């Protein structure tokens, strides 16, 4: 099975990060019980010195190059990913999309209603490439701006409600969509390094939101277990 992580700066990570993508790979390596890959047209981390996604400096040396594929970008949102979805899903032969987007759109480009339309466009494009593609969508999670900007916080709440409605509207038996829960204990003060981007604790919580949702609904893998930095997977999986 081929999983593709889709997201913004919280998903791509920056040089020196583990990323929640790595935490997902660790967990699936230990629990999936069959062949899988993390795929995507991009592999790099964001390098702040170059202002570009060109770094290969992952914090985990056991994260294999073949598992680093993703469709994520620093400063990119639904607005940026919707036009890329059809080609990325098709060329990467993605079976399952794990999507964390929305903060960038609401913060810089679109309001909640406009962002929901981009969600629907993304799903349509992904299905045009693979009519049986599955997806798990994460609502916009707590962030520091929402703590200090009441209007922005309200817009995030509106979007999350619209996202839930879109997932329910667009869910299909042959192409199921799931809404992952916002991690209930997620804190911008404990689980991020700057109020937005996840630290190690936050990465584990985001990975758990995706993997536990897939396990409960589709029986994929097992309940999330936190692993150390060493590889937990069985030999010969790659």
Quick description:
With about 240 residues, this protein is α/β, with parallel strands linked by helices. It has 9 helices and 8 strands. About 40% of the residues lie in helices and about 15% in strands.
Structure in words:
- The structure is a single chain.
- This protein is an alpha/beta fold.
- The chain has a single domain, classed as 3-Layer(aba) Sandwich (Rossmann fold), CATH 3.40.50.1110.
- The chain has 9 helices and 8 strands.
- Strands 1, 2, 5, 6, 7 and 8 form a 6-stranded parallel β-sheet that branches.
- β3 and β4 (52-55) form a beta hairpin.
- The longest helix has 21 residues, at 150-170.
- Tell me the Rg in angstroms: 16 Å
Oligomer: single chain
Q: How many structural domains are formed by the residues?
A: 1
The number of helical runs is: 9
User: In the CATH hierarchy, what is the architecture at level 2?
Assistant: 3-Layer(aba) Sandwich
Helix share of residues? 40-55%
Question: Per the principal axes of the C-alpha atoms, what is the gross shape?
Answer: globular
Class by helix and strand content? alpha/beta
Please give the alpha-carbon distance between the first and last residues. 12 Å
